[in-house]
């Protein structure tokens, strides 16, 4: 039973820590940008120039690798 009391006390301590971190973030202006999130999808991201000689341009992700699937054989005995 004493373990339950310790765990409840520890959980209250952790919750108070998260609440303190949240209040600190609000007081320091971490959530003050109200304009950018509403127009972010309207802004164009800078495009990288196309790569030459068939190489991937710097900063661009390589194409995904093809998915290879194993072929399984049916191991059930024939007949019987």
Describe the structure.
This protein is mainly alpha-helical and 80 residues long. Helix content is 38%, strand content 0%. The protein has helices at 2-27, 36-39. The termini are far apart.
State which percent range the strand residues make up.
under 5%
**SSE order in H/E notation?**
HH
How many beta-strand runs? Answer: 0
Low-confidence stretches: none
Helix-strand category = mainly alpha
How would you sum up the major sheet? none
Number of helices: 2
Distance between the termini: 60 Å
Q: What's the gyration radius in Å?
A: 28 Å
As a percent range, the share of helical residues equals 25-40%
Mean of pLDDT: 77
Overall form: flat
Q: Helices, strands, pairings?
A:
Elements: H1 2-27, H2 36-39
Q: What descriptive keywords fit this protein?
A:
single chain; 80 residues; mainly alpha; 2 helices; 38% helix; 0% strand
Short description:
With 80 residues, the protein is mainly α. The protein has two helices and no strands.
